[in-house]
């Protein structure tokens, strides 16, 4: 077989393939990341604007085996699928990560593979109904080759965000050489302050009988001590980022109650006007409304500072969810 290259004909094949799948309700053009479009994900029914827009029901009867909760300690177990097919639309409380992978016929040491399949491996995590979180994965390939999708949840402490610990693992999902393959949707109950990572790996068998695996793809979101998801508030564009970011800068130190707290615990009265001046310097959009507030991305109470890079301008309505979320934040060590 000739070497597979990403050519115009290959992309044309993908376009036809994905357009066909889209007609079946599995893909949505709103999730275009490259020339390939991404499959559509389950949505929360409350987003329907009218009867005509109401999505189909996504939750089927659950399996009797209970969902394994993440209690903050190693608790590995199998979780059960609750959704067998995607709904018509998606929720805006979904984090999606996609990675292009190559499925070589063989990567056995000393052997050079002359054949490979180009695929997109996607993992998603829906936190719209937290502390119950749903997640799943799918693969879109240029050609069919039998492969598996290994799906799991990993967690990490906010003070050690890149130290992944496995919390639960779904049964391996087998794809029988189809160009598009989607896992069931799984549910997991979150408890305690943590980062939760939905993780997917594609594996297949090489020509020499060896197991070949893809890199991990992770979709990460953040939860406080009552399992509430970190607010996802979109910023006016252009701006510092698309959404208000989570502060990935541990440790999270609580300001002491003593008479001489560290400087970072003091609220600078000039902070709001300094952030506004910084926005104007960068030519970022400043929200309009009757009540505009400046939010510390990393709160002073948890070691934040009064530098303008730690500030973001929000309406009172968008600011309030962050205030409530950080009140239940508890970066304990486990």
Automatic annotation (TrEMBL):
In which domain of life is the source organism classified?
Bacteria
Q: Where is the HNH nuclease domain?
A: 274-320
Cross-referenced CDD domains = HNHc
InterPro entries membership: HNH_nuc
Task: Name the chain's protein.
Answer: HNH nuclease domain-containing protein
Q: In which organism is this protein found?
A: Gloeocapsopsis dulcis AAB1 = 1H9
Q: What is the lineage of its organism?
A: Bacteria, Bacillati, Cyanobacteriota, Cyanophyceae, Oscillatoriophycideae
